[in-house]
Amino acid sequence: MNLSENEIEHESGSPAPGEPEFLVVGKLRRPHGVSGELWMDVLTDFPERLKPGLTVYAGENHQLLHIRHCRSHGSSLLVTFEEFSDPEIAGILRNELLYVRSEDIPPLPEGEYYHHQILGLRVVDENRDSLGTVIDILETGANDVCIVRQDSGAEFLLPIANSTVLEIDLAKGFMRVRLLEGLI
To answer: How far apart are CA 119 and CA 112, in angstroms?
Structure first.
């Protein structure tokens, strides 16, 4: 099936921006010490952006918090919030996910994308024939690899590389690719 640009946009199923409102940056663990510090597992590629004054949101209800202090400790962080100075009270945040608003993340350089921007994109070949939808992304080291689910339910792996990805149009919700022989 060959899709026009308008059909590609319609078939993606994503709203025009296609972005979630909140993005997970960490998971809060147990309190540490007597000043309300919490251990936090880092779940972002940009932990350096987690610094004093940053507005964050905790849990499913997205409780508004402001980072007071943040310090590295091994692969984790120790973080305190303006709203909590007592370890007993801070303990209510135990095992909660910590979020930032997607509108607050800085843009990436031209031609680079956050994973959440790629997920859900419709994948089409050079002739705009539908190949499926990106359902997951694997980080392999050399380059990321998309898992693409075809309309039939079958899946294939698509390396995100200059030799395969010809165009990504987030506004229209599609990725145009050149398939390597034997890929599907």
So the answer is: 14
As a whole number, mean pLDDT of residues 161-178 equals: 92
Q: Tell me the pLDDT tens digit for each residue of 144-160.
A: 899 999 999 999 999 99
DSSP letters spanning 35-88: TTEEEEEE-SS-GGG--TT-EEEETTTTEEEEEEEEEEETTEEEEEETTB-SHH
Alpha helices in the chain (DSSP H): 5-11, 87-90, 115-118
3-class DSSP assignment, residue 119: coil
* Chain centroid offset of residue 176 CA: 21
Q: What does the pLDDT read at residue 86? A: 81
Number of domains in the chain: 2
Last residue of a domain, one of 101, 136, 157: 101
Q: What is the CATH number of the domain that holds 139?
A: 2.30.30.240
pLDDT in tens, 82-101: 998 887 888 889 999 999 99
Residues 26 and 94 in one domain: yes
